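Dear support,

I submitted the protein below through the web form. The confirmation email said the job was done, but the results page showed an empty box. After a refresh the structure appeared. I'm attaching both so you can tell me whether what I see now is the final result or a partial one.
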Amino acid sequence: MVELKLGKLPERVPVKLTISVLPDLNRRLLDYAAAYADAYGQEEPLMDLIPAMLAAFLDGDRAFAKSQGGKGQTGARDARP
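What the results page shows now:
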């Protein structure tokens, strides 16, 4: 078997999640989407922003990263335009 420098790509099939949020959080998410549009000059659907927001949150949580031993990095920084 040939050992390539590039390892096998991870599974990339999206997993659909359905959640309910309280009205206050919904307003804050919509406000964030508006701030994103102001910052980058491009509107993005909230449903496209939320996964990147969650990934950035998890990637930035040092205690969680330490408990995971560096596994499970989502690459949220790569998801930003």
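Response: this is the final, complete result; the empty box was a page-load delay. The chain has one domain: 23-79.
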